[in-house]
Structures are given as C-alpha cells and as structure tokens.
Design brief:
This protein has 305 residues and is an alpha/beta fold. The protein has a single domain, classed as Alpha-Beta Barrel (TIM Barrel), CATH 3.20.20.70. The protein contains 13 helices and eight strands. It has an eight-stranded parallel β-barrel, surrounded by eight helices. Helix 7 runs parallel beside helix 8 and helix 12 packs across helix 13. The longest helix has 19 residues. The protein is globular and about 50 Å long. The chain binds the ligand CC(=O)N[C@@H]([C@@H](O)[C@H](O)[C@H](O)CO)[C@@H](O)CC(=O)C(=O)O. The site of ligand SI3 has 17 residues, from loops.
C-alpha cells in the first residue's frame, strides 16, 4: 500500500443501489443513469454490488451486468470499487477476474456467509480473491450481517500485502475502526460504514466513508467530509445531526433500500423496487417520502449556497 493509493482512493463513496426494470430485471440503462447522477455530486466514487447494491441477491451474471453498466458510464470519472463477496470462493474469484477485465479500480469482499467458518477459512477465502487479480483489495467487515468480525491480527496480517489497501468498516465500534487503522498503518485505508456516525469514524481515523444513504444525499456527505477536513468540527457535528434526522426517518420504512430507491424515483432516476426478500415501500408511505425528499433537497440547497 502506498501513499499514492491512499490519495487515489480516500474519500466519499456512494454504496450504490442496483437498478431494475418494472419486472425486477437488471436494467443497464437505468444503472447508467444512476451512476451518471452521482458523477456530478462531488463524490470520489461508487461501491457497486455491496449490501445496498443487493449483490448477494443477484446471480453472478447480473452482478457483472451492473458493473459493466457502471463502468461504461463513469470509468475514469469516478473510482469504482466492486463488491465480489459470494458464498463460494470460486464465484468470488470469477467476479474478481471479471472486475479486472472490465476495468474496475478495486475489489472488496465480505467473508463467505451461511457456513460458520473459522478465521483460517475466511482468510483463505479472501486470499484466493487477492491472488486472482492485480487489483487492490478492500476487506469488507460487516459483522452484524455476516456473523464474522475481523480481528486486529487478521487485519494486520492481510494489510502486510501490497494489494490489500484497506477495510470498509461497517461494524459500529469506532474503537475497532481505530484499531484497524493501527493494524494497517498510515497508508492503509479505513472507510467508515455506518453513515449515522460518519463524523465519529472520521475523527477516529477513517479516511472516508462508503454509505448507502449517501445515495440520496451525496452533497451533504461531501460537505460533512469537507467540514471535517477543514477542522470545522462544530459545523460538521450540526450537519451530522441534520443527516441523522433524515437517516432515522429512512430507517423507519419497511426497508431502508426501498425508501431510498423511492426517493431516487421521485427525482426522476428510476431504479425499480428492491429485490425480495427486501420489502418495497407501500403506497401509504409515499406522501411522507415526498416530504422527506423535499426536506433533503432544502438542506442540500442550504448547505451548498
Ligand atoms: C447494513 C448497511 O446497509 N450498511 C450501510 C450503511 O450505509 C447503512 O445503510 C446506513 O448507515 C444506515 O443505517 C453500509 O455500511 C454498507 C453499504 O452501504 C453497502 O455495502 O452497500
């Protein structure tokens, strides 16, 4: 890991939703329009096929289609990190090789899920992905969904490899986030995962963030990051409070992703419904989401003026 890589990758990444047509089929044109929407928002890049991107609910072929559409639209404009986590190592390696072939900037993965795996097995799973391409690799630690929490020692061991450039820390402990930075050293990137505590993560050593709710308020997270970088901590805290009021509302719907997708649809960026078992919003939620969209827009205008 070099300082060059840090400056190449540090920053704000939208954990991008996938876009489907009315029948729930991946719609490459809609994916492109969504990627284009973010290209002018000030973010550093996109995290494709992660939790928000529903990669785990798609076939390998669909995941490849989404990545290809994103890269056809914003390759060279935005850094594109693709999540390649799958149950089998073989499928993840196939997705890694595809990512390299089509020009992704980095790959990232959760541990294999379903089987209760030892740390050795998870390490081996990730190592096969790391060895399968020349791409930088970003560990994805999200213990609340995978049941596996990255240890300091495993983080340190993996970070010794040139290709392992960082960790996306979606666990809620900012102490552990700080420890991953400690394990990897200054040139090892740590991305904050929980959007609700972006500022706390940054203060504890994160080099940026990857988040799903950034997708409906990318400008506000870019501004929050700018306040942090400029040492304007009181303003940063006020803005974090503002975005948290929005996030709290978003989390009150049948699914967070359904609510965010509905808001994008209100802006003319159609992404379809989340894929089952993730629930869509219901007609009775539409009115309050229209209001929430307006409130987010008003806050964005206020902060950007
Ligand atoms: C479980 C989950 O989706 N966590 C999100 C957060 O951005 C989350 O949506 C946000 O903090 C609201 O709770 C990210 O940490 C992970 C993520 O967005 C992704 O992989 O797509």
């Amino acid at each position: 890991m070099t300082a060059d890589n840090v400056s190449k990758f540090a920053g704000i990444y939208v954990a991008m939703y996938s876009a489907y047509d009315a029948k729930g089929i991946v719609d490459k044109e809609r994916v492109k329009r969504l990627a284009r929407y973010y290209a002018s928002s000030g973010v550093k890049g996109l995290y494709v096929g992660g939790s928000s991107g529903e990669g785990m609910l798609q076939s390998a072929e669909e995941r490849k289609q989404v990545l290809e559409a994103v890269l056809e639209e914003v390759r060279g404009e935005l850094a594109v990190i693709v999540h390649v986590g799958a149950s089998s190592t073989r499928e993840s390696m196939d997705l890694c090789i595809h990512a390299q072939q089509v020009g992704a900037d980095a790959v990232s993965s959760v541990p294999s899920v379903y089987y209760r795996l030892s740390e050795k097995a998870v390490e081996n799973h990730w190592q096969h992905m790391i060895d399968s391409t020349n791409l930088p690799f970003i560990i994805y630690n999200i213990p609340q969904t995978t049941g596996f929490n990255l240890s300091f020692d495993l983080c340190k061991r993996l970070a010794q490899q040139e290709k392992v450039i960082g960790v996306k820390m979606s666990g809620e402990s900012t102490f552990e986030l700080e420890q991953f930075k400690e394990a990897g050293g200054d040139d090892f990137l740590v991305f904050n995962g929980p959007d609700e505590q972006f500022l706390a993560g940054r203060i504890m050593g994160a080099d940026g963030g990857i988040g799903g709710t950034y997708g409906v308020m990318p400008e506000l997270f870019c501004k929050l990051d700018a306040y942090f970088r400029e040492g304007r901590f009181e303003e940063a805290l006020q803005l974090q409070h503002t975005v948290n009021r929005f996030i709290k509302k978003l989390l009150g719907y049948p699914s967070l992703y359904g609510a965010c997708k509905y808001i994008l649809n209100l802006r003319g960026i159609e992404t379809g419904e989340p894929r089952l078992p993730l629930l869509p919003v219901l007609p009775e939620h539409h009115e309050s989401l229209v209001q929430l969209n307006e409130d987010i827009r008003a806050a964005s205008l206020n902060y950007l003026s």
